[in-house]
């Protein structure tokens, strides 16, 4: 069975290569026809998943897609994207333009049927993927255990949504600075981290995956949370129900019976990577986008897709329709950054992430999202934090944290007075609202026996 499947995949690969040689992709970059954006047109033989890969390449360059026109009905893929740089200007950097040409043009090598999307073999680091139920102090516990196990976190991204949490961490051995290859040690790391994830006494499964190489972090986080069914979990919170409904994306699914399409429309607040998030989710759900349009008007975004399932059928039932709506809403909301934005820049050192998250925990701050990067010996970390009790973050608390970590090292990127935190009594708190971060004001994990109990 495995041999026949492998043979079939090889035949598919050779066929796709033949089609590509006969119809090489063509990319036209136009900086003249549009007043305020660079227009990129991509023509190529159509393959399942190619739309996601094109959007992924543009998004990874930190380009903002302001408009898009999608057409891939039949055997040809023809898309037009209006893009700007992070400052809202046309893309004029020759290095970036050349990269787009090489990545999307005849030299490009799109993955076959999404089997290798975003995966680049490497022996420089070990990738740890974590999925589980969120709870107070979880990020601090996980990073403390990694420090205890002599692992350095080079890069990491953490998402939380609907009481669920997912993280992709790139780690190395403290002593060698290389990937961890010892099978016994890898097994120990995996088991101890899983024990930490299980500590919340939830019936939901905790997952830990350890592998060599690099992954496309955003792509994997969407896949992990989709597989974890975070879209099924809704936080019940009467105090914020009205505000939550106002912020909820407007997603509709209707069938166009004459053409056997399902029409998916999305209206929500615009933000970076929004198109990637929605296309990624439709692809993970095995829907093919045949036609579509994307437009932004100020702070609002509108997306319309004409889709069919990979089996050729439109949405067949009300249950399937609701699942599509729930999954797209979850995909949009996962990346929404709630709370106060803090940026940390300092010389990297062993245990830095563990120490910083411990300080947050000691000051009753929870981390709703985190981006950890190491470049040239420097740690460049971004945290979105909120007060564990639901109150606005006190300015004195921020000052205390910055004095402990370093005034020039940790910077506040938005005014805490402008944060629209929910005001409610601590006695009314729901424990499910605590995200990554901490509540308990312990001075070390030794006091709780956390490292000892999981080691």
Automatic annotation (TrEMBL):
Region called Disordered, residue ranges: 413-432
InterPro entries from the UniProt entry: ACR1-12 (IPR040217), ACT-like_dom_sf (IPR045865), ACT_dom (IPR002912)
Keywords in alphabetical order: Repeat
Annotated ACT domain residues: 39-122, 127-204, 341-420
Molecular-function GO term, any one: amino acid binding
Stretches with biased composition (Polar residues): 422-431
Keyword match Repeat: yes
Repeat in keyword set: yes
Matches recorded under Pfam families: ACT (PF01842), ACT_6 (PF13740), ACT_ACR9_3rd (PF24931)
Coiled-coil regions, chain positions: none
Record's function text: Binds amino acids. May bind amino acids.
Protein name: ACT domain-containing protein ACR
């Amino acid at each position: 069975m495995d041999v026949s499947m492998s043979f079939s995949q090889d035949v598919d690969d050779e066929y796709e290569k033949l089609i590509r040689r006969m119809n090489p992709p063509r990319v036209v970059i136009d900086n003249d026809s549009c007043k305020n954006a660079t227009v990129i047109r991509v023509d190529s033989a159509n393959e399942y998943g190619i739309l996601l890969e094109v959007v992924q390449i543009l998004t990874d360059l930190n380009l903002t897609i302001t408009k898009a026109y999608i057409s891939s009905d039949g055997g040809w893929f023809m898309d037009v994207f209006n893009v700007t740089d992070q400052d809202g200007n046309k893309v004029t950097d020759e290095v970036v333009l050349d990269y787009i040409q090489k990545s999307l043009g005849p030299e490009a090598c799109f993955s076959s049927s999404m089997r290798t999307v975003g995966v680049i073999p490497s022996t420089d680091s070990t990738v740890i993927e974590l999925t589980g139920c969120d709870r107070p102090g979880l990020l601090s516990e996980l990073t403390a255990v990694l420090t205890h196990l002599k692992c350095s976190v080079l890069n990491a991204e953490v998402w939380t949504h609907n009481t669920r949490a997912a993280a992709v961490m790139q780690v190395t051995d403290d002593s060698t600075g290389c990937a961890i290859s010892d099978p016994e040690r890898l097994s120990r790391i995996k088991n101890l981290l899983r024990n930490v994830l299980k500590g919340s006494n939830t019936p939901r499964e905790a997952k830990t995956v350890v592998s060599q190489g690099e992954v496309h972090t955003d792509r994997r986080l969407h896949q992990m949370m989709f597989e974890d069914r975070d879209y099924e979990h809704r936080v019940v919170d009467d105090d914020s129900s009205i505000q939550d409904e106002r912020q909820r994306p407007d997603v509709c699914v209707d069938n166009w019976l004459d053409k056997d399409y399902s029409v998916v429309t999305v209206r929500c607040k615009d933000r970076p990577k929004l198109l990637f998030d929605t296309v990624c989710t439709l692809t993970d759900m095995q829907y093919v986008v045949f036609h579509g349009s994307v437009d932004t008007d100020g702070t609002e975004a509108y997306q319309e897709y004409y889709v069919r399932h990979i089996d050729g059928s439109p949405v067949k039932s009300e249950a399937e329709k609701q699942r599509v709506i729930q999954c797209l809403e979850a995909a949009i909301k996962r990346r929404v950054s709630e709370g106060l934005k803090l940026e940390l820049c300092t010389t990297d050192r062993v245990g830095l992430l563990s120490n910083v998250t411990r300080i947050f925990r000691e000051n009753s701050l929870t981390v709703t999202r985190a981006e950890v990067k190491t470049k040239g010996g420097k740690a460049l970390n971004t945290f979105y934090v909120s007060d564990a009790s639901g109150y606005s973050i006190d300015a004195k608390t921020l000052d205390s944290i910055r004095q402990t970590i370093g005034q020039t090292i940790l910077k506040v990127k938005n005014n805490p007075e402008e944060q629209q935190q929910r005001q409610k009594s601590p006695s009314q708190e729901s424990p499910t609202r605590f995200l990554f971060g901490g509540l308990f004001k312990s001075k070390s994990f030794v006091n709780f026996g956390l490292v000892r109990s999981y080691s």
